Amino acid sequence: MILPIVAYGDAVLRKKAEDISQEYPKLDELIANMYETMYGAFGVGLAAPQIGLPIRLFLVDTSPFAEDEDFTEAEQKELQDFKRTFINAKILEESGDEWAFNEGCLSIPDVREDVFRKPTITIQYQDENFVTKTEQFDGLIARVIQHEYDHIEGILFTDKLSALKKRLIKSRLGNISKGKIDVDYKMRFPDMKKKR
User: Fold this and answer.
1) Model-level pTM?
2) Neighbouring C-beta atoms of residue 7, cutoff 10 Å
3) Domains along the chain with CATH numbers
4) What does DSSP say about strands 83-95 and 120-126: parallel, antiparallel, or unpaired?
5) Where on the phi/psi map is residue 38: left (φ > 0), alpha (ψ -120 to 50), or beta?
6) Are strands 187-188 and 5-6 parallel, antiparallel or unpaired?
């Protein structure tokens, strides 16, 4: 089932999310619905706060990037095959020299900006079967994970922009929070009268 994606301005996007246990109600169904929602909106990642749930759960599927010819064949293969569910994630380390990449967010449609992030992360998380893993990721996969991880920490990519960039997009962000935007996927706006 495709769920509405929460728009910029909703308080849930600013909450630090809570850990969950294996007993979380209908977790398998929730994860399946989140994947369906993400694919329906042509996203490469989706975090639970983006569907209104302040829990430490997000998913990533980088396969859409695999068609980008800027990547080597090996990188394309890695991006094509990367699909993960992250539960109760904790980034243990971020390292390397920060690099810029143009990011967007399903909760902030039609706003894209260059964001600087470190290229390598070590993250501990549980998969959908609650098996605990500690893994290192780098490059674009690390970046998508960092973006989704920020959501469960109550951080948006726009928070990482310069004061000038923030001023330049302020009215666009205001329009998104009021529902004054056309999107081709289901969204929930802070002012519930503007539900679409």
Assistant:
1) 0.94
2) 26
3) 5-194 (3.90.45.10)
4) antiparallel
5) alpha
6) parallel
Q: Measured between alpha carbons, how far is 33 from 50 in angstroms, rounded to an integer? A: 13
103 given a catalytic annotation: no
Is the separation of the CB atoms in 183 and 109 below 8 Å? yes
Mean pLDDT by 10 residues, the chain (196 residues): 96 98 97 98 97 98 88 88 97 97 96 97 97 97 98 98 96 94 94 50
What are the CA-CA distances from residue 150 to residues 28, 35, 63, 111, 175 (Å)?
23, 19, 21, 17, 23
Residue type, 146: Q
Output the CA torsion sign for 141, 144, 169, 175: positive
- Longest distance between any two alpha carbons in the chain, whole Å: 48
Residue type, 105: C
CA distance 63 to 129: 22
User: What angle (nearest 5°) sits at the alpha carbon of residue 119, between those of residues 117 and 123?
Assistant: 95
Which is the catalytic residue, given 78, 103, 113, 148?
Answer: 148
CA distance 49 to 96: 28
Residue length of the chain: 196
